[in-house]
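Section 4.2 – Deliverable D4.2 (structural model, holo form)

The reporting period included a commitment to supply a predicted holo structure for the target in complex with adenosine-5'-diphosphate. Inputs used:
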Amino acid sequence: MEGAAALDPDVDGLFETWFRHSPDVIVILDARTGVILDASLAVRRYLGYEPEHLIGTHVDRILPAPREVSSLVVDDVWLHGAAFGERDVARIDGSTSCMLMRAALRLLSSHQVVILTLHDITARKRTELAVAEAERRYRGIFENAIEGIFQTTANGHYISANPALARIYGYDSPEALISDLTDIAGQLYVDKNRRAEFQRALQERDEVRDFESEVYRCDRSRIWISENARAVRDRTGHLLYYEGTVVDISVRRRTQEEQARAVRELEHASRLKTEFIATISHELRTPLNIILGYTELLGDGTFGSLVPEQVDVVERVRQTGLELRELIEATLDLSRLDAGAVAVEPQSVDVNALLGELAETHAGQPKDGVALVWQIAPDLPPLTTDPGKLKLVLKNLISNAVKFTEAGVVTVGVTADATGHVFDVCDTGIGIPREAHQLIFEPFRQVDGSDARRFGGVGLGLHIVKRVLALLRGAIEVHSELGMGSTFRVRLPQLQT
Ligand code: ADP
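Output (structure tokens):
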């Protein structure tokens, strides 16, 4: 310490060590002139100077413009005995470092000196700037968010609110909201219990998601909101406040309510329609059965024998009556299906026995020129399904096969594999053109209107079959070509009982 040593040759070793090796920059100035008398080794690290470069130069060299500032250091020290503050300190390469400066006036060997301690705070400054920048960014998000953002105390006071929240609740500004809305439980929620439920949810799970409530806006109009929020706690678990977001979902709620109302109305209309169809079908069936009964009595000669023309007419009346009954029954089935009123009752079905029952219904020659053949795999395992519905499906397919085959064979085959059973109803009849394979499953659709007149039927059978199979989780496919016969293949899985 040449300068200082010159001032005080008795400086003790401890001071010397502290001064020389201090982690901070220490500079000793002449208090009157501001000339540097000595500098610690840290000037090398922080400012790039060797101590001897600075000794004898004015302190302005390291505490530059405005010049007065550095002179003021000295003046301050004169006036108050010390100075303290942040200063830009010049490095040898012309750049500056922000340093925390302490200056103290001391008497060293009867010389008034200023001891300047400079502590580098560039890193701290950088962190402070980064924090300020992050704060600015988050404030931007907070201010410009579309969602309302809030912080409230547990007892229902707003700590902060963003402009979007004020807008949603109809206030001119967040400040107006915070000063006016001082009792969230009492003022905000239409259902007064809602706040308690919100708090209970936060107590139990520390967060709530999509919490939907109806609330009053500033002008007492009502809106629906959805809230997401969390409870913010300190390290000990003590609740500090709630914070969260709010979205106005009134439009969505209104649409949902309108949809629900439309569905309810539709369900009601559909129920009325089903009831109407059920009643009307029943009312039609009763007189029709009487007509059919008398027709049969007429036909079998109970009221005396008929001339051939009369037999023809009676038979035509009977046939038309039977078709009408078929139509009424199919319509009834369909309306039950539409109303979802058809329950599936799965049970373990002995398929051989079921086919035996069907064979009895179609016993003998089904129709002149058509033979019915049953091909059933031996040891057919049981199938868990609804037997009534399976019968309905097979009956429909078999009677179609017989109906659309003028002369030939109708074969009913069944096989089984691990996934379930496969039923094939195969005929050598008129066949179905490819373009009609989809269409025949639609209600009231037939391949050709003239066929309908020739073969009878109303075009509901296959549609009902497809709907019933959907209930049984089954599927149907058709393999056919015009004039080449048809095969209808039904796959049915094992259902759970
Ligand atoms: P419907 O038999 O009462 O007309 P379906 O819905 O059972 O009504 O059948 C629809 C149409 O599909 C029939 O009109 C017919 O054109 C055609 N179709 C159904 N099964 C066969 C078949 N095995 N062979 C030829 N055409 C068929």
